[in-house]
Specification:
Length: 583
């Protein structure tokens, strides 16, 4: 038996046989053509592009894939249709007399290298799309069938270096148990698809050579490790755990339509965080109270061009209509830091997290900002839309952003375009200076939403994505919890709503603390929604509020752990059970 660590990027347990797939090397012919062959090569190029696009379209129609999958596959189509790509290939064939395969090879290797050398996780993911398109095209030209799917059966766990996004749905349809990728990150396209399909998946596996073809393995995607050649006892324990998880999920489904109330009958708004428009279907299915955070970077990160006002307007309007009148908080572009768009090449910043990100980006590139604001404003008549600015660090920044919003309102008025003139405008509290100044800030804005992920990162000066210092990135840091409490107090004092939309909102260890401090809105990823609802229904949100101020007397992590435990013990009314009080 062996155990190896990886990153859990989806949930669940998988038990099966390891099928290690090594991708075949594609041998590219390297020879020059003569003038008389140019037309043939160009013709072959156009035919192969058309054929691969047709293949993609057929795949979309025949395989009943989700819209999310579809949008990713559409990115591949865009790569194939990109006029710059066509020009480069033509040049390589006509001027440099390269044969078609060589021309394609040169173009894609240069592009992929370029993305990889940018040394940025998101660019590296775009490189995966280019690799995928490249392989597809070459496989088409060489008439190579995709052999990855051969011999895959229901009991298998697929082990690969990385998987192209277009293959994830196909392997899923083979009903495989799970996936292990040596590469791949939380936000890569393939991972997003696998997560949406509910495939247990682990990436970034350390010591992959320990896994042998056909080993019996268990993926524990809850905790992030793989167990190889497990004993019968371990298999038995994990089989039970897997059954329990499936049972728990189906039980949770039965509370979808119950209200989110604490055991002392205090109503809590349980909102959802989304990153892609398609997630709205899941949010509606969960009967969530609305969307507390729409991370709009999707528009910018998955495209090679800037989104137009019309494109954004249509997406916002569609979601607003689907939500009927439920809250729909749209966060304006939060680009920069780890979120970098394909079309944007900022001056190299030594420390991008402290550089031009969030609202600073919008205040620098006001044209991009205004396009988004106009789209949001125009959509605001179709639902309960609210605007939220990310990464606000001072009142001046908030006022500057508001001034630009006012300009957009003026423009729309002059163009006789309708919008909600009283649209609520909020700010994320995710920088310590904003939390400290929250009393003053609350006088200018309509609501707060605490972005605990960044608030913690900036309070303790720990890069939230850097595993090597992750032990310092703890929600139990008393300074961080004090900033949350201060923000909540100031919001209540100034009579504005305050939500929490960072990861702490779904961490049940902190639910009683947050609710006792006065929080009435939590916005979480859809996967946490129902179990959090169940938990909220089992706690009393008032019993421990006398102890909340003790957080200001906590000096160490140990102190705040003790306090949080005390609050949890006092608040827990009826653990695990739905009491009749609330039904
Ligand atoms: C946060 O910082 O807590 C947050 C919700 O924003 P993001 O995770 O998108 O930075
Ligand atoms: Mg943030």
């Amino acid at each position: 038996m062996y155990k190896i660590k990886g990153f859990p990027v989806s949930t669940g347990i998988a038990i099966g046989d390891a099928k290690i797939i090594k991708e075949k090397a594609l041998v590219i012919e390297d020879f020059n053509i003569n003038e008389s062959q140019i037309d043939d090569e160009l013709d072959k190029f156009h035919k192969s592009i058309n054929a691969v696009i047709a293949e993609i379209e057929e795949f979309i129609t025949n395989f009943n894939i989700t819209n999310e999958d579809e949008s990713i596959i559409e990115t591949h189509k865009m790569i194939l249709q990109d006029p710059d790509f066509h020009d480069t290939i033509k040049n390589l064939i006509i001027k440099e007399r390269k044969n078609l395969e060589q021309a394609i090879y040169l173009h894609f290797t240069r592009t992929i290298e370029y993305f990889k050398n940018l040394d940025n996780e998101l660019y590296a993911e775009r490189a995966i799309d280019y690799e995928d398109v490249y392989r597809r095209l070459i496989m088409h030209l060489k008439k190579i069938d995709n052999s990855i799917l051969d011999n895959l059966s229901e009991n298998d766990i697929l082990i690969m270096n990385d998987i192209p996004p277009s293959l994830v749905s196909l392997v899923y349809q083979r009903k495989i148990q799970g996936l292990v990728l040596f590469k791949g990150t939380k936000t890569s396209h393939s991972v997003i698809i696998a997560r949406a399909l509910g495939l247990p998946l682990i990436t970034g596996v350390k010591y992959p050579h320990k896994i042998h073809h056909l080993d019996k393995i268990i993926i524990d995607a809850q905790q992030g490790f793989i167990i190889g050649n497990p004993t019968q006892e371990v298999i038995k324990a994990y089989t039970k755990l897997k059954t329990d998880i499936i049972k728990e999920n189906s039980e949770l489904n039965t509370i979808k339509d119950l209200q989110t109330k604490t055991s002392n009958a205090s109503s809590i708004k349980l909102l959802s965080n989304i990153e892609l428009p398609i997630e709205i279907e899941h949010v509606l299915d969960l009967n969530s109270d609305g969307i507390g955070l729409f991370r709009t970077e999707f528009f910018y990160l998955n495209k090679q061009h800037l989104p137009t006002e019309e494109e954004q307007f249509n997406e916002y309007k569609n979601i607003a209509l689907k939500l009927k009148n439920k809250i729909f908080v749209i966060r304006t572009i939060d680009i920069g830091g780890d979120k970098v768009a394909g079309w944007y090449s900022p001056d190299r910043e030594t420390n991008p997290y402290l550089g031009c990100r969030g609202i600073r980006f919008s205040l620098r590139y006001t044209g991009i900002f205004k396009t988004q604001l106009r789209a949001i404003l125009r959509a605001s008549i179709f639902g309960n839309i609210q605007i939220m600015f990310p990464m606000i660090s001072s009142i001046e920044e908030f006022l500057k952003a508001k001034e630009i919003l006012d300009e957009c309102c003026e423009e729309l008025k002059n163009e006789n375009k309708d919008f909600n003139q009283n649209i609520p405008i909020g700010t994320m509290i995710e920088i310590p200076s904003a939390a400290i100044c929250s009393d003053a800030l609350a006088k200018y804005c309509d609501f707060f939403s605490i972005g605990s992920n960044d608030l913690l990162q900036y309070t303790v000066a720990v890069d939230r994505n850097n595993e090597s210092v992750s032990k310092y990135y703890t929600n139990y840091n008393p300074a961080f919890l004090q900033l949350i409490t201060t923000t909540v107090k100031n919001a209540i004092k100034n009579n504005i709503p305050v939500a929490v939309c960072g990861e702490i909102a779904s961490d049940k260890n902190f639910t009683a603390f947050l609710l006792n401090s006065g929080i009435k809105e939590l916005s979480v990823g859809a996967e946490h929604s129902l179990s959090l609802k169940k938990y909220i229904r089992s706690i009393d949100s008032k019993k421990a509020n006398l102890f909340i101020d003790e957080i200001y007397n906590c000096y160490t992590i140990e102190d705040s752990k003790n306090l949080i435990n005390k609050i949890n013990n006092i608040s827990l009314f009826n653990e695990g059970g739905l009491n009749e009080f609330n039904a």
